[in-house]
Specification:
two-stranded antiparallel ribbon; globular; mainly alpha; 2 strands; single chain
């Protein structure tokens, strides 16, 4: 950001936003917006507690299992759609439908089928993460240069060898992009699942803090989740940049 002849660091807007938040919080205009310094003090207070550790373990376990399922199903499905016109025509409308649908409305349906427990929360994570992974894997495979695929067939590669040694690696930039976006969507999925289906993990903490109007605790937990999602995004974005040369080698 540049003002006049001065170039300001990107964090400037965040610092201005933080200052305004602190001023508004100090005025006491609304209990919903406590001072930002108090929120950071709450983060330091609640993060080391066993209560937070237990919630983190429950939430993290559902998040990891759900995302592993979404990745293990989503990438092969996207590769299949990228290579097969029949599969693409059959599955693409459904993938687009679920990607644009309000998925929160489907969570009660999953709960009726699988009950109010960890299985439903994991499936909610899968529901939020998988569709963008499928679409990006499909896009990555469709961008592979045909000569690369023809070379694999001419050397007698099996379908499994073509999948593991050609399609996944050549489409890796788009696949990583899909995984990154899927993980970010999954953060929303795991919290919604824990709040709607079974009051456990971070969902239980959100319910507890909001019902008792502990807004400093509520915002502290929300900031922890923001930091978690931001860290995932930055790590996977770094990985995407590291494998960019795959994209150029396809052309």
């Amino acid at each position: 950001m540049t003002i006049g002849k001065f170039r300001l660091p990107m964090a400037t807007s965040l610092l201005i936003w933080a200052l305004l938040w602190e001023i508004v919080g100090r005025t006491g205009a609304s209990f919903v917006i406590p001072p930002l310094s108090n929120i950071f003090a709450r983060i330091v207070e609640i993060v080391p507690t066993p209560f937070f550790g237990e919630a983190l373990w429950i939430t993290g376990k559902a998040f990891i299992i759900g995302n592993l399922i979404a990745i293990l199903i989503g990438i092969p499905l996207g590769v299949l759609m990228g290579r097969s016109q029949i599969a693409d025509r059959i599955l693409l409308p459904w993938v687009n439908l679920f990607l644009s649908a309000p998925l929160s409305a489907l969570v009660p349906v999953i709960m009726v089928i699988f009950g109010a427990g960890q299985t439903t929360i994991i499936l909610t994570v899968v529901l939020f993460a998988i569709w963008i992974i499928v679409l990006d894997a499909r896009a990555g495979v469709r961008n592979i240069t045909p000569s690369l695929v023809e070379m694999a067939w001419s050397f007698g590669a099996t379908r499994w060898q073509a999948f593991t040694k050609i399609f996944v690696w050549a489409g890796l930039p788009e696949i990583l992009s899909g995984v990154r976006l899927g993980l970010i969507r999954a953060v929303k999925g795991v919290v919604i699942g824990q709040m709607l289906v079974s009051i456990v993990g971070f969902g239980r903490l959100f319910e507890l803090y909001s019902s008792r109007f502990l807004m400093e605790h509520f915002w502290a937990l929300l900031f922890v989740l923001f930091a978690f999602a931001f860290t995932i995004n930055e790590v996977l974005a770094w990985l995407e940049r590291r494998v960019d040369y795959f994209a150029s080698s396809r052309n």
